[in-house]
Amino acid sequence: MTSPATRPAVVETAVETTAAATAVWALWADVPNWPRWDHALSGARLDGPFAPGSAGAMTVHGQGELAFTLTAIEPRRRFADRTGLPDGEVRFEHRIEPLEDGRIRVVHRAEVDAPEPIASAIASSIEQGLPTAVAALVALAERNGDDRAR
User: Fold this and answer.
1) Is 84 part of any domain?
2) If you write DSSP's letter for every residue of 46-97 in order, what string do you get?
3) Of 82, 122, 70, which is closest to residue 1 (Cα–Cα)?
4) How far, in Å, CA of 93 to CA of 114, rounded?
5) pTM for the complete prediction?
6) How many CB atoms lie within 10 A of CB 19?
7) Residue 117's domain is classified under what CATH number?
8) Under a CB-based contact definition with an 8 Å cutoff, are residues 19 and 146 in contact?
9) Which domain holds residue 137?
């Protein structure tokens, strides 16, 4: 979708944690509960399994419902999704990267491929909420892991 004259606007946030990769994965795969950690959302659903090709929708506060499609799944490692726009798309990648000390890095990356100034406006909106969402995801994964250890 990118033309030679344009590049996608990219936003990325990463948080290191002691949470188990399985705890992070469980939160990602539980689409209806995404609003528990992504407070920009008032709702989310997936119309099928957590697998490539499954479609769903997120309801963003003040913006209404946005359809998405899961495009890649590597269990307990990464997943990707795509949201179509009238003149482009937003591609998200969510990764778990193992670190040498037994911790993990949780990475959320968004590429907004749309004409300017739309791409910059969407990327700016994502950039405002992404660090908070990833931090909340990690905190919830850490708590969920602690709950299971008891």
Assistant:
1) yes
2) ESS-SSTT-EEEEEETTTEEEEEEEEEEETTTEEEEEEEETTEEEEEEEEEE
3) 82
4) 17
5) 0.89
6) 24
7) 3.30.530.20
8) no
9) 9-149
Taking the CB of residue 8, how many other CB atoms lie within 10 A of it? 18
Phi, psi of 86 (to 5 degrees): -55, -40
Place of tokens 């778990």: 96
Residue 2 is assigned to a structural domain of this protein: no
Q: Which of 4, 13, 2, 6 is nearest to 38 (CA)?
A: 13
DSSP 99: -
Total residue count of the chain as it appears in this document: 150
**How far is residue 34's CA from residue 42's CA, in Å, rounded to a whole number?**
9
User: Beta strand pairing status for 41-46 and 9-17?
Assistant: unpaired
59-101 pLDDT, tens digit per residue, is: 999 888 999 999 999 999 999 999 998 889 999 999 999 999 9
Six-digit token string for 150:
């008891």
